[in-house]
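As described in the Methods, two query proteins were run sequentially through the folding procedure within a single session, without resetting any intermediate state between them. The first query and its resulting structure tokens are shown here.
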Amino acid sequence: MRKQPKEHVKQSFALVLLVVLTVGAIAGPTGLLAWAENSEVLSEREARIAMLTEKRSALKNRVNLLDPNGADPDLVGELVRKDLGVLHPDEIVVTLEDE
């Protein structure tokens, strides 16, 4: 008994759809081949987040030290000397490069 042509079209369409989905699952942007690349990108971004979190903590500490109600005198003196160039005649300034 022969299958009707309509049935052949349905089966062919289902087969093509299955092949397309399989190729997408393997080689697509979220497929198995991209898994290693995505995990590498994830680890890079986690490292960047850790660095930015550390930098944010340092900036938050500096902001707390510059609180108008109780600013740290050492930090205020450092900023005045750096930004305004105010020095006593007997002072010597030694600048250190940030690493």
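Immediately afterward, the second query was submitted; its sequence and tokens are:
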Amino acid sequence: MANFLFVLSRDDNEAATRCFQFAKIAHSKGHQADLFFIDNGVNWADSARDLNVNTTTGDCPNDYLPYLVENQVPIGV
């Protein structure tokens, strides 16, 4: 088992979607995954934020973030 720290520093839908996706994949494979929001990435901690905006590949943050919350993957701000 490996430890992964995913750092999100941008207020960008594509970057957030990938960050959440990679954290979900790592965690679902049995690895320890942690997320940390810095700089403009802290805007993703807003519970009123629309998480259903699609990326160019058709997925969105809401495809991955609920898994992370449900599985209590640590998210630091």
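Residues 37 and 77 are 5 Å apart (CA to CA). We note this only descriptively and draw no conclusion about the first query from it.
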